[in-house]
Amino acid sequence: MNDRPIADTLAGMGEQPPIPAPNAQAGGADLYCLQCDYDLRGLSGDPCRCPECGFLNPVEDFPVPDTFVREHLRQLKTTPMLCLVVCLFGIVLAAPILVAGFIVSRAFLLVAIIFPSLWVYGMLKFRSSCRARLGWASAFLLYQVVGLLLCTFVAGQLDGILRQWGFRNQSLAVMAVFLAGLVLNCLFLSRGLDWLGRLLDPLFKTEALHRARNELRKQKGQALMLAEASSKKMSEFDVASCGGEN
């Protein structure tokens, strides 16, 4: 029976049954050691022992729980979020310098070099994480632009609320309204960024599934290594016991 396509399995990213996995064989698949990344192609056995570090690598894949995939999706989406934070900090630090007219100052040059470099590094990491799939650049730029607009809008709203908060002799009702405004703006920003993150799911699904499956394979391999070590100790104990009796 054919497995369901990954896109169909992960659609919606809701509570779904485990994702079935294809049967991988070490002889033909691009299989690498989960401990040291040694190329295991051409080696036989399941688990396949790495000749470099000795780690036992399960070859046959197994269903991946949806919770594992969602967790890796969340981790992958931290890169564009960090790029947005870098962009915001760069603007916040550069704006006062530009207003003061210190365009050629050392501070401005540092900001103009460090923050764009970090942003470009994050963009390249994003490209690598989604395996340079078609549309990665437009999705990344959309996330950055819309995220900046959301943060600017919320920052303007919060600035107005905080300015009003500074007035004296305000009633408790007015203060409650201001506090509610703060909470609503923060919720609006959180929901907006969450919506932007969901737009990136199609780009990251394949990589998230790959990482989740490798994580489970590594856990199984570690369990096999512990079982093997325990078996060796038991064998050594039995041999020592037999030798003592003789």
Structural class: mainly alpha
If helices are DSSP runs of H or I spanning 4 or more residues, what is the number of helices?
7
The H-and-E topology, N to C, reads as HEEHHHHHH
User: Cα distance, first to last residue?
Assistant: 57 Å
Shape: elongated
Tell me how many strands there are.
2
Features:
elongated; 67% helix; mainly alpha; disordered N terminus; 7 helices; two-stranded antiparallel sheet; 246 residues
Can you describe this structure?
The protein has 246 residues and is mostly helical. The chain has helices spanning 6-10, 66-76, 78-100, 106-129, 136-165, 172-199, 201-245; strands spanning 48-49, 56-57. The protein has a domain at 68-202. Helices cover 67% and strands 2% of the residues. A two-stranded antiparallel ribbon has the order 1-2. A hairpin with a 6-residue loop joins strand 1 and strand 2 (56-57). Helix 3 (78-100) crosses helix 5 (136-165). Mean pLDDT is 77; it is low at 1-29.
